[in-house]
Specification:
The protein is built from 18 helices and no strands. It is mainly alpha-helical.
Length: 378
């Protein structure tokens, strides 16, 4: 009996220890699973864990961003530090403020605007403004459609994604004028996706999806005929011919992507949108990033830098997270079962001792008359 009681107590202690060790992991896994459809809550959980283990992480990333000349990213980390109540050295904060002031200076903005307008590539607010301006006067989109369309007509390698984005851009630009600017976020989103593709900053998964979507919205034979007679010098005639090759009914997915990119750019900045496009595997990732940006604003770039796609969705499989909860529940059940077994065995031992005492008393009571008679006869 002692051995059985001892084994039950050892089992109870072992299960209690397992519960204590597994509980933190199970708690975190449960919180992450509950937040898997909320990018803001999910990123907060991941960030809190990362910063708890490495409080100096933000300061290190600020130094790295300043060294790389990326004042926007450095400022994003400053905003994140403020949100998480992490103190920064005064000198570091001042250096970031100076870098942001320089980046936003009129001369720097004008230079980047001109670069975006002429080259059609953007990596910040100023260059994006120039690129969007170029696309709004249809110069950029006509240039891209004519160039890629001629490649298509001549049987050469054609970037169907650039072709589809530029073709959709012409239709959206017309809608922008009709709606008095209401479609500008979509126009900016298309421009950003196109620019990301040009400079190789569009993720492979998103490139495949967007490429399939772009192929569907362009009538290739009609476009070949349009570019054969089109020219940048005759924009009105060229636009009409190109728009005729655009299948608006097939452009829903691409337009939704452009809307999400536009929302993301408004809240997290141009570079934040480009960072997301680089790691996104599909339009759902971009939509999640837009939701994150609407909640976190300027902190978004820093969050994406630290967590990558882990800020948008479960990086570890839900099955692995569920295993922590399963093992914690199993340990808890073992603890409860051990308490039950220990209680039962202690009760049995107590009852056995009680019965033994009662039996001894009965034997003693029966033995006393016999002993008295034996003594009398003796």
């Amino acid at each position: 009996m002692r051995l059985r009681i001892g084994s039950a107590i050892v089992g109870m202690a072992g299960c209690a220890l397992a519960c204590a060790l597994l509980w933190p992991h199970a708690r975190d896994a449960g919180a992450i699973l509950a937040a898997q459809d909320d990018p803001a809550a999910l990123s907060d959980l991941r960030l809190n864990s990362a910063l708890r283990n490495s409080p100096e992480l933000i300061a290190q990333n600020i130094e790295a961003a300043l060294a790389a000349g990326d004042a926007d990213l450095a400022n994003s980390f400053v905003e994140l530090a403020a949100a998480k109540n992490i103190p920064l050295a005064d000198d570091l904060s001042r250096r970031v403020a100076d870098a942001v002031t320089e980046q936003n200076s009129a001369s720097h903005f004008a230079k980047r605007f001109a670069t975006g307008l002429v080259t059609g590539t953007a990596d910040d607010v100023a260059s994006l403004s120039g690129t969007v301006a170029g696309d709004l006067i249809v110069f950029g989109d006509i240039r891209d459609v004519v160039r890629e369309g001629k490649h298509l007509a001549m049987g050469e390698d054609t970037d169907h994604l650039i072709l589809g984005l530029a073709t959709a851009g012409l239709a959206v630009t017309a809608a922008t004028y009709i709606s008095l600017g209401g479609a500008v976020p979509v126009r900016a989103g298309l421009t950003l996706v196109k620019d990301a593709r040009k400079v190789g900053r569009l993720g492979e998964g998103l490139t495949r999806w967007a490429g399939r979507s772009a192929r569907e919205i362009v009538d290739a034979p009609m476009l070949r005929q349009a570019v054969a007679t089109g020219s940048v010098m005759r924009p009105g005639q060229t636009i009409s011919a190109i728009k005729a090759a655009f299948r608006a009914e097939k452009a829903g997915g691409l337009v939704r992507l452009a809307k999400d990119v536009g929302r993301l750019s408004e809240k997290a900045g141009t570079k934040g949108a480009l960072d997301t496009l680089r790691i996104a595997e599909g339009p759902k990732d971009v939509a999640r990033a837009a939701r994150l940006a609407e909640s976190k604003g300027g902190q978004t770039r820093a969050i994406m830098k630290l967590l990558g796609r882990g800020a948008l969705l479960l990086a570890a499989g839900a099955f692995n997270l569920a295993l922590w909860i399963f093992w914690a529940l199993l340990a808890l059940l073992g603890f409860v079962a051990s308490i039950k077994a220990t209680t039962e065995r202690l009760t049995m031992a107590w009852l056995s001792r009680k019965k033994a005492r009662r039996l001894r008393k009965q034997v003693a009571a029966m033995a006393q008359p016999a002993l008295a008679g034996f003594t009398a006869h003796g």
